[in-house]
Amino acid sequence: MLIIESGSAAKLPQGILLGNTSDEEAATGCTVVLCKEGAVGSVAVRGAAPATRETDLLAPENAIQKVHAVVLSGGSAYGLDAASGVMNYLEEQDCGFPIGGAVVPIVVAAALFDLDIASASIRPNARMGYNAAATASPIIGATGNVGAGTGAAVGRFLGPLCSMKGGLGAASVESGSLLVSAVVAVNSLGNVYDREAGAYLAGALLEEDGKDSIVEPLEILPELFSAIADLRANTIIGAVLTNAKLSKPDAARVAAMAHDGLARAIYPAHTSFDGDALFALATGEVPSQQDAVGALAALAVERAIIDAVVSAKEAYGLPSALSLKK
């Protein structure tokens, strides 16, 4: 039997901690996933405009096997600075790869673009990353307008004035002793679609018959992409977390399969204007086959994306899925 939970009810694998720091005035923040003992890790980048840090070392053929933290940040490439603060925190905790009488924490990161929502001059920095790491806990807590989702928006293909509030989402899927969780910051060019409801939950808005309605992107995008030279103000970033025992190549496959969930929930996904990137971390407690973990990962990512928009609150002039229903 599958047990699926979303939002604050979602579970994290043992040994995984989650922390958030938000600057609500500047509409930005960062989310930190910690595994102080280290977890086998990899990444799959499917968008063509990513902002990432240390992803090369996650390739299956490279030497480093374990990751100590994943940082998800706002602030575009500037926000990658938050990872330095997480490194400082982990060094203080003596967590990292031991070498030459020192420890080097392995901290990977990805950032999304939120500079056009409130302040372009205030971005997540090392202090914010340190604070998120220092306050991380085994409980997911709030989702929506927190951490890397603070300034996130969705349906950005008509620009920020026509988009809706995105956010940080979480979900977990349990099958027997196997647990697969996802934490995702949703800031997409495309709309968010719920297969169970058979409808868009959030996305680009235009007024129709006196009320705002979500635009069908597949009707408008061919012409729009020809007319607009640059829409690179997007990106979905996240982490899949599991208690499965996986090799590094296995984790790479799980990260790749997790993008299936992104494609189920975002229309369109993986465009040349998005930097979609999903990390995978495995703590190694439960013997599992990679394809089974990947299938559950796709479901967890899909439900986390939906949680991000249904948990988000109206802010910065952006309506939310909840406010649109009223």
Please characterize this protein's 3D structure.
- It is a single chain.
- The chain has 326 residues and is α+β, with helices and mostly antiparallel strands.
- The protein is built from six helices and 19 strands.
- It has helices at 82-92, 126-134, 217-227, 248-265, 290-311, 321-325; strands at 2-6, 17-23, 28-45, 52-53, 66-73, 97-99, 102-104, 107-111, 153-154, 164-165, 167-175, 178-187, 191-194, 199-202, 205-208, 211-214, 235-245, 266-267, 277-287.
- The strands form five sheets. Strands 1, 2, 3, 4, 5, 8, 11, 12, 17 and 19 form a ten-stranded mixed β-sheet that branches. A three-stranded antiparallel β-sheet has the order 14-13-18. The protein has a two-stranded antiparallel ribbon with strand order 6-7.
- β2 (17-23) and β3 (28-45) form a beta hairpin.
Keywords:
single chain, alpha+beta, 3-stranded antiparallel β-sheet, globular
What class do helices, strands and sheet pairing give?
Answer: alpha+beta
Shape: globular
Q: SSE order, as H and E?
A: EEEEEHEEEHEEEEEEEEHEHEEHH
Q: How can the largest sheet be summarized?
A: 10 strands, mixed
Q: What's a concise summary of this model?
A:
The strands form five sheets. Strands 1, 2, 3, 4, 5, 8, 11, 12, 17 and 19 form a ten-stranded mixed sheet that branches. Strands 14-13-18 form a three-stranded antiparallel sheet.
Topology:
Elements: E1 2-6, E2 17-23, E3 28-45, E4 52-53, E5 66-73, H1 82-92, E6 97-99, E7 102-104, E8 107-111, H2 126-134, E9 153-154, E10 164-165, E11 167-175, E12 178-187, E13 191-194, E14 199-202, E15 205-208, E16 211-214, H3 217-227, E17 235-245, H4 248-265, E18 266-267, E19 277-287, H5 290-311, H6 321-325
Parallel strand pairs: 5-8, 17-19
Antiparallel strand pairs: 1-11, 2-3, 3-5, 3-19, 4-8, 6-7, 9-10, 11-12, 12-17, 13-14, 13-18, 15-16
